[in-house]
Amino acid sequence: MEYKSDIEIAREASKLPIQEIGNKLDIPTDHLLPFGHDKAKISTEFINEKSGNRDGKLILVTAINPTPAGEGKTTTTVGLGDGLNKIGKKAAICIREASLGPCFGMKGGAAGGGYAQVVPMEEMNLHFTGDFHAITSAHNLLSAMIDNHIYWGNELDIDQRRVVWRRVMDMNDRALRQITASLGGVANGFPREAGFDITVASEVMAILCLANDLEDLQERLGNIIVAYRRDKSPVFCRDIKADGAMTVLLKQAMQPNLVQTLENNPAFVHGGPFANIAHGCNSVIATKTALKLADYVVTEAGFGADLGAEKFLNIKCRKANLEPSVIVIVATVRAMKMNGGVLKSDLGPENVEAVKSGCVNLGRHIENMKSFGVPVVVAINHFVTDSDTEVGAIEDYVNSQGSEAILCKHWADGSNGATDLAQRVSELADKVEGNFNHLYEDSLSLFEKIETIAKKIYRADEVVANHSIKEQLLAWEKAGYSHLPVCMAKTQYSFSTDPNLRGAPTGHSIPIREVRLSAGAGFVVAICGDIMTMPGLPRKPAAESIMLNESGLIEGLF
Questions:
Q1: Positive or negative CA dihedral for 152, 158, 159, 163?
Q2: What phi, psi does 527 have (nearest 5°)?
Q3: Which are the catalytic amino acids?
Q4: C-alpha span between 218 and 323 (Å, rounded)
Q5: HSE-up of 188 (CA within 13 Å, CB side)?
Q6: What's 229's DSSP letter?
Q7: What is the pTM of this model?
Q8: Considering 232, 278, 388, 512, which has the largest number of Cβ atoms within 10 A of its Cβ?
């Protein structure tokens, strides 16, 4: 049987005007800033008006470690949101915006799949409402003002060797990871080493996603440390006097975006930090707005639960005072086979033993998530090649772990394929538990927080960091940053720092290559192993297949 591609399904969608989607959440038309007919931003005034509303139930969708076989975390997030509405609940979903880098690199798109998608798919995966461009511009404005300050006399006495603010762009470009800037003579400034990160790794992205309002945004931007003086005292963004102009550039970008699923249910799509190099969650303001307007809010955290969910629970929930009611872990038969040692080319035939062997990865995630005191459900995202015996093997394994697994067919059947999951999730969410807890306390030292994540989530034996890294962490603690949480930058493919080590490895170590202080965002980044904050394109990038067809329609996004 031949199946339609995601983009073909999205193109056939029967979309409602965005005002009608707003009506489902009681958002008046005059509080929607439309971008065309099918997407809009929600006004700050309306968000403030609803701040006293009672919060709905927050449901987190996460997953096992990603494999080339595919897991479908966003697809399940959309399917669950549609499923909740199908059974009569007032539900909304909250997901992140797509970065151009992965769209033209490995992923080709990030709006769900099959009949569990958010639309307009093409715009969401490309420029959307311009938020990423605004973040890129605000970030690079600060970069330009730092170098300009140095050029015009360096009144702040910045040590040019200690400028820590890098530039960003929303594209995978390994050639820009490390560069020499300001070459070409006196008129171009003072030559120094510099580099680029991808926009989603920008501290400005993290700040926009964690800020509560424009006032909070500007304060956080002002707190960014951009450089150090010769006496090693910090120079802040507010010292450069860039925080006001950056806030102006980000004013509209701070407003959450409203779109719809294929089944015309409301979806908030706002912010987009990666979970392997940043904190991996959609914006606090979008999540909080959705919670004030819907009874159930389904949100996702990037990559596997060892990264996105850990950061959602320890950074986003801590900073925004949020508490999830249920955690859904997405798994597939195909991914279990890969974790059990089967090659991607051999995933078709039934292999129950490989499924059973690969379930240890799922089991590790279940155990980790249950340690936060929140009920855990496993969603088995169905593929047509899955056999009943293979599905049964996962269900039996999950039951043995004290949790439950539910087969979901939302990719093929939309909300009808997710009603069982929706029913169970809503039942669990409606039980007032109140047992949510963070992995570590604010009072631990920064290195102890890194060790706690490495040992309790990754199951590492030790954290390896040289003397200079430990001294840097101590210096930040003395400067008043000891209370900050830690954001681990690590490969998404494994619990370890070796992307090829699948399953549930133990006995490994976590090497810390570098640490960065994101004083504005409010966390310390620990860069582990070989992970890069500026990705590169793969040997055969998705961009090679993305084009306009004879009818002028986009092909190749998926």
A1: negative
A2: -95, 120
A3: 73, 75, 96, 107, 275, 303, 383, 411
A4: 26
A5: 8
A6: E
A7: 0.95
A8: 278
Listed residue (11, 15, 25, 19) closest to 93, CA to CA: 25
How is residue 474 written in tokens? 């101590």
The Cα 438–Cα 6 span in angstroms is 37
Residues 165/146, Cβ–Cβ less than 8 Å:
yes
Question: Any idea which residue has 């509303």 for tokens?
Answer: 53
| pLDDT string in tens for the chain (558-residue length) | 567 888 889 889 999 999 999 999 999 999 999 999 999 999 999 999 999 999 999 999 999 999 887 789 999 999 999 999 999 999 999 999 999 998 898 765 678 899 999 999 889 889 999 999 999 999 999 999 999 999 999 999 999 999 999 999 999 999 999 999 999 999 999 999 999 999 999 999 999 999 999 999 999 999 999 999 999 999 999 999 999 999 999 999 999 999 999 999 999 999 999 889 899 999 999 999 999 999 999 999 999 999 999 999 999 999 999 999 999 999 999 999 999 999 989 999 999 999 999 999 999 999 999 999 999 999 999 998 899 999 999 999 999 999 999 999 999 999 999 999 999 999 999 997 778 999 999 999 999 999 999 999 999 999 999 999 999 999 999 999 999 999 999 999 999 999 999 999 999 999 999 999 999 999 999 999 999 999 999 999 989 989 999 999 888 887
- List all residues 6 or more positions away from 351 whose beta carbon is below 8 Å from its beta carbon: 337, 340, 342, 390
